[in-house]
Amino acid sequence: MNDVLTTILDVVQSVDPWLRDLIAGVAILLETSVLIGLVVPGDTIVIVSAMGVTGLADGIVLGACVVVGAMTGETLGYLLGRWAGPHLRTSWLGRRIGARNWDRAETYLRRRGGIAIFLSRFLPVMHSIVPLTVGMSGYSLKRFLAWTAPACVLWSGIYIAIAAGAAQSYRELADSAHYAGYVFIAIIAIGLLAIFLGKKVIEWREKRHMKD
Question: Residue 95 has what pLDDT?
Fold first, then answer.
């Protein structure tokens, strides 16, 4: 297992940091702005990119790129919702998302306002369609960004810390411990389980605000 993990981490780390950060930022931008996140979760992109982080400064730069990408994507999603919202809902993609999800997003935003924008970053499906819904609602862009910015920072920080911490722990143990790979897997698994449970708690607590 150590040999396989070493190869994977070496491949990720061999990519120039600026290119790795750029790819992560652009991928997160697309994830939010054109609904790619409904197919390829942004969590996966950030985790893979963070495995190549070798120090605090490297992690901060990656985090900044991910946050800028996420906020840019959400801004584009907001503008798309403002300019083409009704047409988008009735388009092929809009119908695939489903009227129920659109209605839930609208109800959630109407009842919770900025809290809905912040928490939607951590909710499945909602994180991709809430920016569009906010744009349709007439909610100001300035207020939208004020709520989504801290959510993007928290979201990216959590995933980068878990993946970079797991990779760093593995590198420190790989040469002297045959169980290093299991340590890596355990850190990732525990971190993702904690995130999953946290998301489920948020979803459970907020579900009542999405129902008519």
Answer: 83
